[in-house]
């Protein structure tokens, strides 16, 4: 059974509800805390094995063709579909360009 991810409304490129957003909606350079994995049990288990688990802080390094996350001193590449199913809370946003 496929879960439908919660709707996240974006405002000016950022989540209108900062408490939870999909990882795919976060700007590169942000540090986030994973709140929920909306994936199949097999994928959820594998993500947890890789260090992507609830309450884990990660940094979104890049968001181009793949989403590169730094977790536990390692970098992992995630597809856009997977990034859309990882709900996060922003800890710190990237610095604004002057």
Index terms:
two-stranded antiparallel sheet; single chain; mainly beta; 2 helices; SH3 type barrels; 98 residues
Q: What would CATH call the class?
A: Mainly Beta
User: Order of strands in the sheet with the most strands?
Assistant: 3-8-4-5-6-7
How much strand?
35-45%
CATH homologous superfamily classification:
Ferrous iron transport protein A (FeoA)
Class of secondary structure makeup:
mainly beta
| Fraction of residues in H or I helices | 10-25%
Topology of helices and strands:
Layout: E1 10-11, E2 14-15, E3 21-22, E4 31-37, H1 41-49, E5 57-63, E6 67-71, E7 74-78, H2 80-84, E8 86-92
Molecular structure report:
It is a single chain. By secondary structure, the chain is mostly beta strands. It has a single domain (21-92), classed as SH3 type barrels (Roll). 14% of the residues lie in helices and 38% in strands. The chain has helices spanning 41-49, 80-84; strands spanning 10-11, 14-15, 21-22, 31-37, 57-63, 67-71, 74-78, 86-92. A 6-stranded antiparallel sheet has the order 3-8-4-5-6-7. A two-stranded antiparallel sheet has the order 1-2.
Brief summary:
This protein has 98 residues and is mainly beta.
């Amino acid at each position: 059974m496929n879960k439908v991810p919660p709707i996240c409304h974006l405002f000016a490129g950022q989540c209108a509800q900062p408490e939870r957003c999909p990882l795919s909606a976060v700007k590169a350079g942000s540090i986030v805390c994973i709140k929920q994995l909306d994936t199949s049990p097999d994928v959820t288990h594998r993500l947890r094995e890789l260090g992507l688990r609830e309450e884990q802080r990660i940094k979104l390094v890049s968001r181009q063709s793949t989403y590169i996350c730094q977790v536990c001193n390692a970098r992992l590449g995630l597809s856009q579909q997977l990034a859309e199913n990882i709900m996060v809370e922003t800890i710190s946003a990237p610095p604004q360009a002057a």
